[in-house]
Amino acid sequence: MTIKTILPLVAAACLGAVTPAIAVAATPGQTLATAPAEGVLRVRSRYPVDETVTRIKTDIAAKGIRFFEDIDQSQLGARAKISLRPSRLLLFGNPPLGVQFLTSNALAGLDWPVRMLVAEDADGSVWVAWTDFAYLGRRYGIADRDAALKMASEVSSSIASSVTK
Question: Cα-flanking dihedrals φ and ψ of residue 90, to 5°?
Fold first, then answer.
């Protein structure tokens, strides 16, 4: 690991208990804390799913960030007659910041706007997960936007920390 890959983890860890992905195969009944997912950061929320979502949306609005969508994945599952524990995908972003990544590599648009997943484990624990921006920078070979990647990382970690207090 380089300092560029460690710093976002350290910053997020200072804001809450960040659990990096573990490189193992997924197994039935695996928890959100241990499920493999390369480049994914996660924190445990102190609140139920609905309150976690509300707190995240409130923090996003307070920061003047544009909120795009709240996708209730468990509701979509229910419509398809598939049972899924509470799971909501939030999409948000600051176009003047996020679009910079697309100017470096248009394929980065697959990961912007920012996505945060709020999901409940079988034991009732609620987790917030998002993709590490250092990982995204490496994924898309973005070498000319270090300050923007750092800013995005700090803002996302700050938003996630709104549910760890």
Answer: -105, 130
